[in-house]
Design brief:
Length: 467
């Protein structure tokens, strides 16, 4: 009798076509997170938006994505991964068109929230279908391709965004960065309908709606005030909500442990956080994702608004960073991760902190030669690749196989939550504290997050893989 770990019966040609369909969806979802950074000043100018509006255009996607990611994985188990994948692609495509046609800023943010929710439906099903298509040994090579293509997609976003805005196709300007998802999403939807294997849902799957709701409320209480701080500062209800965030998280954790003890459905097994390497690892991942997302958000924005580069020039300036990421992830990280273990993270965090600081101060000072910036960006990208590539294998190194699925869901969720946190903290420092006049406060936030991460990484066990 087939089990969930057995591959479906398809020819190699059919599997290749199905795999290519998943690649399209992966690129569609990842590129959309970063492509908006380049378009943001143009969007803000058209709608006369504030700093808080700019933050919400980015966070409006990432926040629902993070909150719904783990729930969507369980829904895929219940209703079938193919069904949820198709619903996610259809919703993502429709929401993208809604973003491109948005008549005002509020409608754009609403469409971005819907886009993020649809992306959350789609993303967990990709790995689930990979598990259906291939044996455990075959998955190693396929998942390696996913890592490479995922990394390239994330750094290609700003470059593609700059090109599309400069091309100004049909006079649509920034709207093309969203509207391009229409035909690509339609191709992914049709290909998914015809090529992906049909799978039955598991009626015995139980959904932790209570956990999803309580953790969601707690996280919103922490992040919403920071995203709104630029409008009127942290005072009154916003300050009260922010203060309530940590106690709400403790309540959500207490409720999850009680449900687990009673045998009820849980968002994730509580014993995972009893694993010291995993617990430290997700904190490191939160810090790194916050710093990296905050840096990319601020760098693309400041290049245009402070240094007065065009969107196309901004995209081109990102290219050395992209090359550095490929070197750090595909060459340095791949070769040294097993031998260096935690120290590759320490070095990567340190390089990114140093070079991100130098890059932002280059913009802040103004008038310096571009030839000084480009090699710094190359090293910053290498630091980013060295930090992100080996991180997940390290975090999961001591996780039991039975908990691997839940652990992976937590990792992806923490990555997205780190992104929202980074946008909130860096945006609050730039728009709120300095009033968009100086990059120094936001730069200190980014360097501080990476500095704390480097110290925590140095305190991981000396041998993680060998023990």
């Amino acid at each position: 009798m087939p089990t969930s770990s057995d591959p479906v019966t398809l020819t190699e040609r059919q599997k290749s076509f199905a795999f290519f369909t998943l690649i399209i969806a992966l690129v569609l979802e990842i590129v959309d997170v970063t492509i908006v950074n380049t378009a943001l000043p143009s969007i803000q100018a058209e709608f006369d938006g504030s700093g808080a509006f700019a933050q919400w255009v980015v966070a409006g996607y990432v926040l629902p994505y993070a909150l719904l990611l783990m729930l969507s994985g369980r829904l895929g188990d219940l209703f079938g991964s193919r069904t949820l994948f198709l619903l996610g692609v259809a919703g993502f495509t429709a929401a993208s068109i809604g973003c491109g046609l948005a008549p005002n800023g509020n409608m754009l943010i609403v469409a971005r929230v819907l886009q993020g929710a649809a992306g959350a439906l789609m993303a967990p099903q990709v790995l689930a279908v990979i598990q259906q298509l291939y044996t455990p040994v075959e998955r190693i090579g396929r998942l390696a391709w996913f890592g490479v293509i995922g990394g390239l997609s994330s750094i290609a976003g700003p470059i593609l965004g700059g090109f599309l805005i400069a091309a100004n196709i049909g006079g649509l300007g920034w709207r093309t960065v969203f509207l391009i998802n229409g035909p690509i999403g339609l191709v992914a939807l049709l290909a998914g309908w015809w090529l992906l294997p049909r799978s039955r849902g598991d009626a015995a799957t139980r959904i932790d709606l209570v956990g999803t709701l309580t953790f969601g409320i707690a996280i919103l209480a922490l992040l919403f005030p920071l995203l709104q701080a630029e409008k009127g500062g942290l005072e009154g209800p916003l300050l009260a909500l922010l203060i309530a965030g940590p106690p709400l998280l403790l309540v959500a954790w207490w409720m999850l442990r009680r449900r687990a003890a009673a045998g009820g459905p849980v968002l994730f097994p509580p014993q995972l956080l009893g694993n010291p390497v995993f617990r430290a690892g997700i904190l490191l991942l939160l810090l790194f994702s916050a710093a990296n997302t905050g840096f990319l958000f601020l760098f693309a924005y400041a290049l245009q608004r402070v240094a007065h580069f065009s969107p196309f020039e901004t995209g081109l300036i990102h290219m050395p960073f992209s090359v550095g990421v490929m070197l750090g992830m595909g060459v340095i990280g791949r070769r040294l991760a097993r031998r260096a273990e935690k120290w590759i993270l320490v070095i990567g965090y340190g390089l990114l902190a140093l070079c991100a600081t130098a890059s932002l101060l280059w913009i802040d000072v103004g008038g310096l030669s571009l030839s000084l910036l480009l090699p710094v960006l190359l090293v910053a990208g290498a630091g980013m690749g060295m930090s992100s590539g080996p991180a997940t294998p390290l975090i999961l190194a001591r996780v039991n196989r039975a908990d691997a699925g839940s652990a992976s869901g937590i990792v992806k969720t923490v990555q997205q939550m780190g992104g929202v946190t980074g946008i909130a903290l860096v945006g609050a420092a730039f728009f709120g504290i300095s009033g968009s006049r100086s990059l120094v406060p936001a730069t200190l936030v980014i360097a501080g997050l990476l500095g704390i991460g480097a110290v925590l990484a140095s305190r991981l066990p000396a041998r993680i893989y060998a023990d």
